[in-house]
Design brief:
- The protein is α+β, with helices and mostly antiparallel strands and 541 residues long.
- Helix 1 runs parallel beside helix 2.
- The radius of gyration is 26 Å and the shape is globular.
């Protein structure tokens, strides 16, 4: 343990527990992807404690009043109280296991940068599990203990499931995700974490739920294949074991993007309908399973055209039905899977266990989870997710559906080319004569990314980024996103303290390029956002 920490810890004890409930201005790194700093500044805490005073209390804009002191000697706080402490003004609190910690005065010194603020007002357990360096020695825990101000109210421990609540058995989303709702489960990945790993860890995958999450036991699972153009007996049933035994396993790395990804940026122009996703309603995984085409061929669908088959439906156990064109389903290069593995593991419940459809290059809703039936048909699936307004693109002038024949509007399948900036963050201070920019780009239909251009003067001049992970994909079969990095020179004449707008635009293998303005593509459903992403930063004063 650094000597400065040892001194601060001793001074903390001397200050006494009168300091509980106030700002604990000691500590070292508790979050982040960097190793803990070897030295931490504790001057303020040391000076205060040496005077026999407790550190200055946080501003009383929120409820800082603790509950009763429990047997261990710590005051208690509720999760709701912790959630109110997310800024320097209110004090920044986090929890770890059953402890409550005030990390306010440490944030500026955090070696992992502002990522520590992702946990403000919440638990850091998931972060420590992700960044294992916190668990590889005793020092991080000892440092964190020096910032403890209390414990969580014991009455807030997990309660038994409510049999009357259909969502009571849903798996809990990782605390690393940004939650939009719990019932149903809707959560996205913080954009700044996306480019940490080209293949997204399962726990960090975005979650788009529509209903309670099915809980299907492997030995009870059955997949039914039925419909037009099949051999007798016209209906086939498979267990999960039979799918694995009867068909060759294939793996496909594919990015899935929710149709409403980026909707919050449309909302900044005019309110739309749906979840206000940022840029994190998309993720990438290595999927393992059987080819849908192989299963259909086994069931006798050798000539779908002659049989009048034009679409293949997926019916999910959560009552969602969607469909794709039969040409995509049967293509040897379409790579459509009935997947049972995600990143080398059984697919987690939240993401479709035991079997889900993977339709590379298509909008997320066509990648139906918990698939129980596959149906060959001469028309699209019926229902709101295919024929309703949910996943159809309307003109900017359509603000209601009076006089609109919704069924005549084509359903979204492939999505347009898009990109996002993961670093720097909005409002971040950048140093030096260049700005380091990171992000990712993707296009539907397997169209690979051929170029990403980055600007720090709102598009007056451009720097071509270096394509990173994902660039090696075939340009006509690039199902996964591509990461990029760029070092862009600050325009001459810019002074410290001035603001810069960082933006980028991607170009795909068909030379489709992102539009500049979001208002030109605004739509009432808030889907298909792909305008230039823009991030305003400040030059180091």
């Amino acid at each position: 343990i650094p000597r400065s920490f040892g001194m601060a810890a001793r001074l903390f004890r001397l200050a006494g527990r009168a300091a509980f409930g106030s700002r604990a201005a000691v500590g070292a790194g508790v979050l982040g992807s960097s190793l803990l700093a070897s030295n931490v500044a504790f001057a303020d805490a040391s000076a205060t404690a040496a005077k026999g005073e407790a550190p200055s209390p946080a501003k009383p804009a929120v409820n800082n009043k603790p509950g009763p002191v429990v047997a261990c000697g710590w005051p208690t706080y509720s999760k709701a109280q912790v959630a109110e402490h997310t800024t320097a003004e209110t004090g920044i609190w986090v929890t770890y296991k059953d402890g409550v910690y005030d990390i306010t005065d440490f944030v500026a010194a955090h070696p992992g940068g502002n990522r520590i603020l992702l946990a403000a007002g919440k638990s850091i357990d998931a972060y420590w599990n992700l960044y294992q360096q916190h668990l590889n020695s005793e020092a991080p825990m000892q440092m964190l203990k020096a910032m403890q101000i209390g414990v969580l109210d014991a009455s807030e421990v997990e309660t038994d499931m409510d049999a009357n609540d259909p969502y009571s058995n849903d798996p809990k989303a990782s605390d690393l995700l940004l939650s939009h709702s719990v019932k149903p489960l809707q959560a996205e990945m913080p954009a700044e974490l996306i480019t940490d790993s080209w293949v997204t860890p399962n726990d960090l995958w975005f979650i788009r739920g529509h209903h309670p999450i099915p809980d299907i036991k492997e030995d009870e699972y059955r997949l039914t294949v039925r419909g037009m153009g099949l051999a007798e007996p016209k209906t086939f049933t498979f267990t999960l074991a039979q799918l694995k035994q009867n068909f060759k396993k294939y793996e496909v790395t594919s990015t899935i993007q929710c149709g409403g990804n980026g909707r919050s940026l449309f909302n900044s122009i005019k309110k739309t309908m749906g979840i206000p996703w940022g840029a994190g309603a998309m993720s990438n995984a290595r999927w393992g399973g059987v080819r849908l085409a192989d299963v259909l061929l086994y069931c006798g669908c050798h000539d779908p055209g002659a049989a009048g088959v034009e679409h293949v439906h997926f019916e999910g156990a959560e009552s969602l039905t969607a469909s794709i064109p039969v040409d995509k389903a049967m293509s040897s290069t379409g790579d459509v899977l009935l997947a049972y593995e995600m990143n080398g593991e059984p697919i987690p419940r939240s993401h479709g266990y035991p079997v889900r459809a993977i339709v590379p290059g298509y909008v997320g809703v066509r990648n139906v989870k918990w698939v129980t039936s596959v149906v060959t048909a001469n028309e699209e699936a019926k229902g709101p997710w295919q024929r309703g307004i949910a996943y159809k693109g309307f003109a900017p002038g359509v603000e209601n559906f009076d006089g609109v024949d919704v069924e005549k509007v084509p359903s979204v399948q492939e999505q347009p080319v898009m990109s996002a900036i993961t670093s720097p963050k909005k409002g971040e201070t950048v140093e030096g004569s260049t700005v380091d920019v990171k992000g990712f780009a993707w296009s539907g239909g397997g169209r690979g990314i051929v170029r990403v251009d980055v600007s720090v003067d709102e598009g007056k001049s451009w720097t071509t980024a270096t394509l990173k992970e994902g660039k090696e994909q075939k340009l006509n079969r690039a199902w996964a996103w591509t990461f990029f990095e760029a070092e862009v020179h600050v325009p001459e004449g810019k002074k410290a303290g001035e603001k810069l707008t960082v933006c980028c635009k991607a170009t795909d293998a068909s030379y489709n390029t992102q539009p500049e303005r979001a208002d030109a593509i605004w739509n009432i459903r808030g889907i298909l956002f792909n305008a230039w992403p823009k991030v305003e930063v400040v030059l180091d004063p």
